Amino acid sequence: MSSATEAGARPDFTTSICLEEPQAHNPYVAERRFIAGYDVAELWRNRPYGDVLLLLLTGELPTPAQRRLLEVLLIGLLNPGPRHPAVRAAMLAGVSKTAPEHLLPIGLLTGSGTRGGALEAERAWEFISTHLAEDPAGFAEKCLVDGSEPPGFGSSFGTLEPIWQQLATDLIAVMPEQPVLRWCQEFAAVLASRQQGWLPPGLVAASGLALGLSPRMTLGLFQLAIAPGVMAHGMEQTHQPISSNPMLGDEQYECV
Amino acid sequence: MSVSDTRFWDERRRHIRTSIGKWQGARDVLVRGRRLLGDLLQELNITQLAVLNITGRLIDKPLALWLEKTVFFTSYPDLRIWCNQLGALAGNGQASPVAATAAGVLAADSRAYGAKAQYLTVLTLSELKADHDAGASFAELVARFPLRNGVPSISGFARPVKVADERLDPMRRFTAELGFSPGPYVRFVEGLAEYLQVHHQADMNAAAYACAFLMDQGFSAMEVYRIRTADVLSGVLACYGDLYDQPAQAFLPQICTDVRYQGVAPRALPHSL
After folding, report:
1. How far is CA A124 from CA A77, A153, B73, in A?
2. Is there a contact between A18 and B261 if contact means CB atoms under 8 Å apart?
3. CA A51 to CA B68: how far, in whole Å?
4. Count of domains forming chain B
5. Which of residues 221-250 of B touch A (CB under 8 A)?
6. What is the pLDDT of residues B206-221, one digit of tens each?
7. Which domain holds residue B47?
């Protein structure tokens, strides 16, 4: 018997997410695997992917409204577009013949920062949850006067990005009485006077709060959400010649 | 709706303006205004070049050597260290060495150890010293931090294993041998460490000393973060290589119960709503 199975032995890790039931004749192999108490085989036979994802993130199966909210969010962010820094990074790597298994990590790393990336989603979660008790319209006015940049909200190239505002509207339509989503929508409505509004990290943060996710799980949800577009665009570029993304000429590069 | 003012972005669309450098095809490369092949190749070592690229600052050879020597302390080939375990797992899975290194370097972007910890240590030391200079005592400074196992949890003054930091004395020694005298930040951390020894049976670790030294040399927290980014690289690759040719699943194999489950007990799946 392995020492780790003896009473009192310190485990390598503890987890509340996953139980693995060992085979009787080989303790290195799992006979069954459970997520938050549910047999994975039962889940794949009976539940859609989104339900199991939320089970993984929260420990409980979602309500129909939660399931739909996640689905709308994940479709909305599935491809943030080829100019999004995370996607663009994967495309640049793909066209420059980087090993294809690196493309998704490259994109997610590039898109991990506090400006439009995964860290901004976490900061937006903190920002929203900290200010939920305040009047959203009044607080938005204060932010505009202060010139502060609320994480999760703002402009893109100096203007509102209509796709993200539409996604917010459709998310709120799924859960119209959800207090976090309502607060954020009222907050964003005031910002619109200055061409500011919802940005993807804010959409993920508000949805994460509405779904009961922690700030770190929300950060991870942002990465999961954009991953398909990052991966697909990156892989597509691997089939292009490296010359299809030409270097800038000397006349386009000033060294001062 | 009015037309957006996009001049800022228009000026940058398909146009780069920079001072860091430029490849001058078939002739040379400019690095911060200097010729890489014509001048720097003869004059600099790799660390001087790296710091020049990272910060724009051309450091002297003794400081470059100091930076190289301190990497001896941040990249042990010990398979138990977290980032090195990633190298071993990647090696045993026969991932590429670059993937393994990237994973290990990312792992060391940690508030507990590695590059990020040093960044945080510089920020902490900067604040503590400013307050100390303004009159706060060591006791008042230390009281701000929570106790962990009776020891104040101060960035740069903790180790995962409670033993003396074997790196401190050699680091002090070669710092002196390279001709450096303790500056205000090093004197500050030595004083704080002495207080912790007397009152908490604690000490600084090598990160506090190294960060204080680099602060005395005029580096900012972000510059330290950037210079230290890849410090763990060689240890990670040592562990990667060690496991690469071993049989699959050879690195610290786990039985199911090595991961202890403390969640909800197995339950029946309800009917879908």
Report:
1. 16, 8, 37
2. yes
3. 51
4. 2
5. 249
6. 999 999 999 999 999 9
7. 19-59
